[in-house]
Every structure is written in structure tokens, then in C-alpha cells.
Amino acid sequence: DVLEYAFDNCTNDSLVAATVLIRKLGDTGAPQTSVEVCCEDVPNGQVLVEVWVEDEAGNSDYCETYILPQDNLGNCPDSGTGSSALLTGEILRETDMSPVEDVIVDVNGSTTMTNASNGYSFNLPIGINYTVAPEKDDDPLNGVTTYDLVLMSQHILGVNPFNDNYKMIAADVNGNGDISTFDMVQLRQLILYVITDFPTNTSWRFVDMDYSFPLDPVTGLVNPWAATFPEVINVPALPTAGESLVDFIAVKTGDVNNSAIPNQLLGAEDRNFETTLVLDVDDVDMREGQRYTVDFIANNFTNIAGYQFTLNFDRSALGFEGIEAGALNIGDKNFGTTLLDEGILTTSYNEVEAVTVANGEVLFSLTFTANSNTLLSEVINVSSRYTVAEAYDNEGTSLDIAFGFNTTNGTVIAGGAFELLQNKPNPFNESTLIGFNLPEATTATLRVFDVSGKTLKVIEGDFARGYNEVSIERNQLQATGVLYYQLDTDTDSASKKMILID
Question: What 3-state class would DSSP assign to 295?
């Protein structure tokens, strides 16, 4: 791997790589073409070395790396080698002690991955020092919603401060050892799909389960940064007796209310709402070339602490122009516009204390230009395609979100419309995701077939209202080239084309 980064602006790279030299760190002799590793090096667990490269002119430089010596055949006397012991552990979420899957655990350069029901285990030579380092940096939006922003703002302003070290670590979104509005800005950008990961942090943090956080010596309050908490665990001279247990508590960055799904055995979050927050919109018969301000109007907007949703609009019919605040303290920062090319606006709004707005007042407005003659209700809808559609009251209860289109015949409540989306990526050669939106929870069937109509894959299931997605693997299809997929419910059907390449 070192050679991948060895290059020179004068000498051909292949000649640079051909002159690799090595020596033990600290040796004063000239680097050689080989280095000797002896029995005396085994108990230390690793041998630090310098790897040197030279160009044709004699210029040289080096990097540091290490060798892991192991006496698996037991040839070294009096070192305890030839024997091994188990180093095992669990990585659990603090609230319910459920295991966290897909955590990469590194022990002196060797790795394994946790699954949905078990921890990790290594069979290692005894008498050697080991360092256990877990890492998980995927699915940053797992457990992250605008309600976390509600709780973070209450903490920052002292309305309801956190009294839990792990919550504070979760709220430290940018990883700088503090909780501030900068963390909230970054988390909102993630919710809005302005950014797609944590720029200066990982999706999960890990703390030695046996670690006791000290109180802040100045304030006497909870403060996980009063001392450096251990995110790796050192195991000196792995003993022979039994198993050595090394356990960690896992903390999902940004997930202050512990709603993240740590493993597949727990399944997806149940999104059955007790009630719905309806945003009223005056339906409009739009004329091509005309500019329209679309007001989103309060309808029982009572004790609402925040909301978020995806607004879909038909790009062939509408062009997005801008945002205007109404009764809510809302602005550009509350909307994500990075997906406008897909006809997507994302939005996230919250307040420290829940807000009530009188019926009929304008909450906020969006401006569009009509690209064709169309009816507004036919070209915009609310969904969970990207930012999940939900609202929160002052008790933290989640509400569904829908648009209520005011027409001459009354108000028509509309959730997300039925929509089958283009698979991503397309074309694909290993796996692809097919997303779809359902106006109501229902049973649906997704069928993949070839150009002759032969069925290659059928997926049936009970799917939630809003955005859903399924993954299709190459080995499930046994075909290449142009394929089709079709989604059917009792009331709707749609199909699209996709391409599987070699």
C-alpha cells in the first residue's frame, strides 16, 4: 500500500517503486532491502519500520508503518507463543443494550465486523499488547430528524439541558467537544440533503463501556469532555485464562432521542401516526409563463415544535423561484435546494418552544413560474422521498403531514401521491435501489422482467405510507441488458426501464 503513494516528478514511477528500502524505526544504519524480525519482537505486538524510496538522482524520503510479528508455530522459547486466547466483546446502544451491527472492529490491523445478534471475537496469540478500535461511518441520517434539533435548541438555551453524557456526545455533531448552534446548522443541512455526511465527525462514536465520566471540575455538572473519553481500548499482554472482554457503548451522532435503528433484527421504525398536520393550499389553475406565490396556510397548527418533509414538484410544469416567510420564523436556511433538478424541495423547521398559529394565517410562501397550463394540486405533493415527512408537538409526539387543497368544492386532503421512481444507480452492475411513494400504507408488488416479459424477480410486502425502497442485487436477476420493473397496488400501477451491465 505504501507504493501506491510513491511518485516523483522526474523519475518514472516504476523506477521509484523498484528501489524500496526498509529499516526498523530508530536504527541508525542505512536502510536495506529487508529487515530482520526476531522472537524478541513478538511480545511487543508490532515492529515500527521506515519504508524508504529513492529516485535516480539519489533523493529519498520515507513513511512510517508497522509489522505485526506472530509466532503461530511456537518456535520462540519462553514467550508464551504457540498459544492463543480469545479477545471478544460487544458493542451496544446505551439506552436498551441492543447490539449495533456492521461495526468494523480493528485489532492491530486485523478486522472483523459485528452482526445483528453478536459482538466480535478474535483468536490471538497471547502475551502481546493489542489495541481494539471500532468504527462505523455509514447511514448518517439513521435516527436523525428535526426533533433532534428541537431538543438541541432546548439544551443550548437552557430550557431543558441534557443531563446525560451520551446524549451530549450525540449532539456534538461537528465533533469539536461542545454543543452549539454550529452543530444545529450542520445537522439541519444533513436533514435537508444539503450535505450527505458529517464533514468533521463519524456517524457513530464509541466509548469504553467500563469508563466512568468525571463531572466537570468547575461546574460539577455532566460534561463528557471534562476528560478525554476512551474511543479505543488497549489490552496489555493478552492473558491465557479464559476470554478477555472488551465492550463499547455506541453513540449515533445527531440522534439525541435515541431513535436510530442499530440492527436489522429490530426492523424499521413504525410510522403509524395518531393524527395529521394539514397545511392548507389554495388550488390554482395556473397559466403558462405566469408567476405564482403559493401560500401554505395554518389549519389547526397548534403546539407545533417542528416539522420536516419533502415537497415534490413537476419540473416540466413548474420552475421554483424563491421562499418568503409568513407567521413562522422561516427562511432559506430551512429549505434544501440541492435537488431542484429532480423537482425536489426539502424543508425543516423547529422552535425552542411549541408554536400555535391561528387558522387561516400564512405560515410561509413559495414562488413558482408555470411552464405550462396546469392545476397546482396536480403538480406538487408532500412525501418522504428524501426528508421524511413528519411533525412534532410540544410533547414530542410525531404527526403525519399532508396538504389540504382548497377548491370550489371544499378542501381535498392529499398526502404523497403514488409514484414509482427511477432506480439508482442506473445503469448498474452490482445492486440498485428502487424507490416508490405510496399515498397510504398498503400491500404492493414489485416485479422485475426482461424484454420478452419473463419475470425475473418478485417482491411482495406491506409497505408504509410515504417513501419506501427495495434493493435489487445482480445475482437475483440472472440477466443483463434492458430490464423493466413494475409496481402494483390495488389502486395504482406504474413501470419503468432500467439497465443491468456486465
Answer: strand
- At 202 the pLDDT is 97
The rounded Cα 75 to chain-centroid distance in angstroms is 47
pLDDT of residue 73: 57
Task: Sort strands 493-500 and 481-488 into parallel, antiparallel or unpaired.
Answer: antiparallel
Question: First vs last Cα of the chain: how many Å apart?
Answer: 28
Dist CA 286 CA 288 (whole Å): 7
CA distance 205 to 231: 7
- For 70, the grid coordinates are 506472530
pLDDT value at residue 351: 96
Q: What angle do CA 208, 209, 214 make, to 5 degrees?
A: 75
Cα 170 to chain center, whole Å?
Answer: 13
What would the pLDDT profile of 149-161 be if each residue is shown by its tens digit? 999 999 999 999 9
Res 247 pLDDT > 70: yes
Grid-cell match 520515507, residue found: 62
Q: Which three cell numbers stand for residue 240?
A: 491465557
Residue 108, classed as helix, strand or coil, is coil
The answer, as to whether pTM is greater than 0.85, is: no
> Quick one: pLDDT at residue 9?
63
* Residue 87: band (very low, low, confident or very high) from pLDDT cuts 50, 70, 90: very high
The Cα 77–Cα 86 span in angstroms is: 22
Q: How far is CA 325 from CA 4, 163, 295, 353, in A?
A: 53, 35, 10, 19
CA neighbor of 489 nearest in space, from 465, 473, 457: 465
Mention every residue, 6+ apart, whose C-beta is less than 8 A from residue 206: 91, 103, 134, 135, 136, 231, 248, 249, 250, 251
Residue of 188, 194, 187, 193 lying closest to 170 (CA atoms): 187
At 1, the amino acid letter reads: D
pLDDT of residue 2: 46
User: 104 forms bridges with which residues in the sheet?
Assistant: 113, 135
Gap between the Cα atoms of 340 and 313, Å rounded: 9
In this predicted model, which residue has the larger pLDDT, 63 or 148?
Answer: 148
Q: What distances in angstroms separate CA 222 from CA 166, 168, 182, 215, one per listed residue?
A: 10, 9, 21, 5
Alpha-carbon span 454 to 448, nearest angstrom: 9
| Residue 16 confidence (pLDDT) above 60 | no
How much is the pLDDT for 80? 47
Mean pLDDT for 108-122 is 89
**Coil, strand, or helix at residue 210?**
coil
Quote the Cα angle for 299-302-306, to 5°: 100
Judge whether 401 and 385 are in contact, CB under 8 Å: no
Question: All 3 cell numbers of residue 20?
Answer: 524500496
Which residues 6+ apart lie within 8 Å of 373 measured at CB?
285, 286, 287, 288
What does the pLDDT look like over 474-491, one tens digit per residue? 989 988 899 999 999 998
Q: How far is the C-alpha of 246 from the C-alpha of 235, rounded, in Å? A: 8
